[in-house]
Each structure stands twice: as C-alpha cells, then as structure tokens.
Amino acid sequence: MPISTQNTPALFESSSGTAWFFLLTITPVGGAPINLVNNNEPVTSNGVVYMPYPFTLTLPLDTGDKIPQITLTIDNVDQLLVDAVRELELAPSIRVQLITSAFPDLVEKDLNFLKLRNVNYDAMAITGVLEVASIWARKFPSEIVDPVKYPSLFY
Fold first, then answer.
1. Neighbours of 100 (CB within 10 A)
2. Residue 44 lies in a domain
3. Structural domain for 46, as ranges
4. Are the beta carbons of 134 and 114 closer than 8 angstroms?
5. Total domains in the fold of the chain
6. pLDDT value of residue 55
7. What is the pTM of this model?
8. Which residue among 22, 39, 65, 110 is least packed, with the fewest CB closer than 10 Å?
9. Would you say the C-alpha torsion 3, 6, 8, 10 has a positive or negative sign?
10. pLDDT tens across the length of the chain (155 residues)
11. For residue 22, what is the domain's CATH number?
12. How far is 88 from 111, CA to CA, in rounded Å?
C-alpha cells in the first residue's frame, strides 16, 4: 500500500515540519484498550486520544522462510504497563498504525492482526514479540484422529 498523496510531499522533503508517529493499541482479552503514541504529547487520531509513552518497534528482515515477528520495546517509565502485564492471562491483541502530525486522522499503515507474546520486563524496559495472528501458523488438523479417540471411524 503506497503512501497517500497528502503525505507524499513531506516524505520527499529534505526538511519537513511533519512528524511521523506510531500509534499502539494494546487490547487485553476482556479489558479496556491502552492507547499509546511514540511522542512527547498526546495525539488524537480518529477521535481516539493516544497517550505519550516512549516505545520502539524493530521490524524483521524479510527472509521468506518464516512468519515475520516485530520486536516491541516499551520504556518502563512507570508501573502502569508492568501492572497490566502481570495481570495478563492470554496474549493481548496489538494494533499498530502509522500517521503523520499533518494528517492525524489519515492512517498510512495499519497492522491490526498482531498478538503480543514472550513478554519480559525489568526496571528499564518491557519487551515482547508481536506475532502475526495467522490461520496459516496454526496446527492443522488440531487433533489426531486415531482409533482410541474415534473408534467408530475404524471398523
């Protein structure tokens, strides 16, 4: 998906007043979403307020031999997210959006099919892996058909 025509000039300028932001939405199973932006002040996009919180996304190399994983690193500046991580029982859904300061309601890229796995934290940072929640990554068939479980199939 190409960059929109509204943001293309800012992309090609050598110096621009337009900033590019990642919006991060962490949605725990059965919980309220946590909306973060990698900025030093809140950003409103499509009616949702994203709170400033320092984080980085490390994109994977596209080798083609496995499903790509994104590494998420969030600075551990207060206990809000550590407390949320400790309460997790199931992997939360993650949505990552790319916007600009010039057009915050125009989402350039949208990854809304990610799950947060392998979360670790210490006094400095919370790290995790964003995996693609893909049906192609699931085991198929989900169980083995054998005479013990399904005796009627084996007469």
1. 20
2. yes
3. 8-153
4. no
5. 1
6. 92
7. 0.75
8. 65
9. negative
10. 577 778 777 777 777 788 889 999 998 888 889 999 999 999 999 999 999 999 999 887 777 666 667 899 988 877 777 777 777 778 888 899 999 998 999 998 898 888 888 888 888 888 988 887 665 655 566 677 778 877 887 76
11. 2.30.110
12. 22
Nearest to 101 by CA among 16, 25, 24: 16
Residue 86 has φ and ψ, to the nearest 5°, of: -65, -30
Residue 76 within any structural domain of the chain: yes
Is 25 a member of any domain?
yes
Sheet holding 93-100, edge to edge: 43-45, 48-52, 34-37, 20-27, 93-100, 109-121, 125-132, 69-75, 55-58
Residue 3 in any domain: the answer is: no
Strands (E), 47-92: 48-52, 55-58, 69-75
